[in-house]
Amino acid sequence: MAFDIDMIKDVYSKMPERVDAARNIVGKPLTLSEKILYAHLWDGKTDKAFTRGKDYVDFAPDRIACQDATAQMALLQFMQAGKPNVAVPTTVHCDHLIQAKQGAVPDLKRANENSHEVFDFLASVSKKYGIGFWKPGAGIIHQVVLENYAFPGGMMIGTDSHTVNAGGLGMVAIGVGGADAVDVMAGMAWELKFPKLIGVKLTGNINGWTSSKDVILKVAGILTVKGGTDSIVEYFGPGAKNLSCTGKGTICNMGAEIGATTSTFGYDDSMERYLRATDRAEIADEANKIREYLTGDDEVYANPEAYFDQVIEINLDELRPHLNGPFTPDLATPVGELGKKARENGWPIKVDWGLIGSCTNSSYEDLTRASSIAQQAVDKKIKPKSDFGINPGSEQIRFTAERDGILKIFEDLQATIFTNACGPCIGQWDRSDRKGDEKNTIVHSFNRNFSKRADGNPNTHAFVGSPEMVAAIAISGRLDFDPMNDTLINEDGEEVKLEEPRGIELPPKGFAVEESGYVAPVADGSEVDISVSKDSERLQLLAPFEPIGNQIKDAKLLIKAFGKCTTDHISMAGPWLRFRGHLDNISNNMLIGAINAFGKKTNFVKNQLTGEYGGVPDVARAYKAEGVKSIVVGDHNYGEGSSREHAAMEPRHLGVVAVIVKSFARIHETNLKKQGMLGLTFANENDYDLIQEDDTFNFLDLDQFAPDKQLAIEIVHSDGSKDTFKVNHTYNQAQIDWFNEGSALNLIKKENAA
Ligand code: F3S
């Protein structure tokens, strides 16, 4: 048994009293999100109503989950905190470092050879500090969490932005940077701005070709990649009850794509069924005892406008299947309309690959729905025109799907079954039909489709859809194929039509697994020795950051990023994942994907000291070597995407002292604060236009850095002229203390020592 029933019983024993107290203090009925948040206050005292979108609140999460790429830096940081054990149940999942190439067996073998140093490090740190360890091949973090650890009404944080997936089982589960996870592992509170609440009322029923995935593809189209910022999205209504638990997981998973803090659903029969099917009847029995506390109050759902900050209503009866993309997950197009749009925009119609699985869509229901389409291709003699790749989400799903003949159906279509790991979803894909930089199209059932995300090629146009739609499009080989209306010609020259997909929510014979890949924590790991070689190129022990200080003068502009600048642009994934545990080495990818506003090129910026141009990390290192501080300027929603704190640690390591942007994505802004840097926003966003390539920055009043107080910055242009502009910030006093100490971790250590 991987889950901790005593911890869950403890949460449930406190929940009714805390929720009732919160209802009294707030003075009105509560949403589910509020119930979970108020039930997890750090001090357990429900004596204050918090202002949504404003108050910073300390919480006590029940669990932590880390994936291998982010766990390295998180655990390297935790090792510095001087604690004997993690304070909260924690798991590490090895899923990001496995490249998809030939198929599960050879790919896993190669990953175990190439990354053994990292896997061994994670296993030994887990053993030493009481952390549950999931070996490479055991599965993708969020699928494994949903199958084993998520529970209704719980609060979890995870060092991966798709931690939000666990909202499918009624949690408030939030993606954080490794530094936040380290705080909680070290027994500290976890701080979050009390979120705003978006209610999504679902009516009607999913039917035909439409799936749960289409709910979130539609919501992404409505809210865009920024629309969920600082908000929890809570789904409710009769349509929500009719979705499977894993379908709810898919919807919550892609809440990350609208920038939402998280998404969640109230406890219902589908969750109970899933808990029982995944061998957690004990949790279902406990949840049933406090059922009304694990969902929003009736009055809230009857009159949502009065309780949510924003309400969206979707009638599932009318919802059509969508494909979102390319290059951004919020570009939503109903399937029948995609051909016209593709032709207008010059997107290649021919589809080269259909990829199914990932943490987003690899449930039993997903695989059965997709395989019901694949089976028709076999039965109707339609030769697929695209290649197929499948990434099962966990060994339990893979084993069960193999036992039930589901994988065989895909194999009959020559699909490659990759390892139970992230693979192409995170650029870990050695693509057999490598396209160079050629324009091409792929469809997948993952969540993200930023440029270069899957295969490193900026000209790969990736579209996100449901697994069954991906199967249909891949079989047709055409982006403009509409399986609801179009026909295909089979190998006998006959015109055939695909019928609607059919899925099975849960395996009739139950889930099964032989080797789950789980290593339980040991009671006493104090004797475990952890060694990191000085010569390692993968791992590097950390040294504390020096405080930046309150006198920033003569800092040079490093880059003025133009347009979209996600954490993939700031700290690229793909081959760079190898260096996630080595700060100096991975810093060589810092901002190499960002477009410089001057010249509109990537990784090409001016070194003001020499007048020459070079790569961003090289110029940053040159400034650092001369003792010159540097500044990064950015556009809107800077740092959207993943929770990786490397995107903050790298600039910190290379001497960047402030990132000044039009607006931030939440996690990245917090990560900058944790590393003791300045994350600032233009008070007047047009001041972005003042910044010139040769600018020098002087902070005028940083010695008066205080909550809710703007800062003033002077820029000196190359002709000697000057401009002064104001910046806003969201630092509270505790976060200003992090800045003053050099990092949040420095402060933890100081407090531990005291
Ligand atoms: Fe992995 Fe992609 Fe999910 S990287 S955790 S499968 S979003």
Which key phrases capture this entry?
754 residues; alpha/beta; Aconitase, domain 3; Aconitase, domain 4; 3 domains; 7-stranded mixed barrel; 6-stranded mixed sheet; 25 helices; globular; binds FE3-S4 cluster
Indicate the topology:
Elements lengths: L4 H22 L5 H8 L16 E4 L3 E5 H12 L10 E4 L10 H11 L1 H14 L2 E3 L6 H8 L6 E4 L13 E4 L2 H8 L4 E4 L2 E8 L8 H12 L7 E6 L1 H4 L3 H9 L8 E4 L3 H9 L3 H9 L8 H5 L7 E6 L6 E3 L7 E3 L3 H8 L5 E7 L6 H16 L7 E5 L3 H9 L2 H7 L3 E2 L22 E5 L15 E5 L2 H10 L11 E2 L5 E2 L21 E2 L35 E6 L6 H4 L12 H4 L18 E2 L6 E2 L1 H10 L4 E5 L11 H8 L2 E6 L4 H9 L3 E5 L13 E4 L11 E6 L5 E7 L4 H9 L2 H10 L1
Parallel strand pairs: 2-3, 2-5, 3-4, 5-6, 8-9, 8-11, 9-10, 14-15, 14-17, 15-16, 17-18, 22-25, 25-26, 26-27
Antiparallel strand pairs: 1-7, 4-21, 12-13, 19-20, 22-28, 23-24, 27-30, 28-29, 29-30
Bound molecules: FE3-S4 cluster.
FE3-S4 cluster binds next to helix 6.
In short:
With 754 residues, this protein is of the alpha/beta class. The model has no long low-confidence stretch (mean pLDDT 95). Helix 1 crosses helix 2, helix 1 (5-26) runs parallel beside helix 12 and helix 3 crosses helix 7.
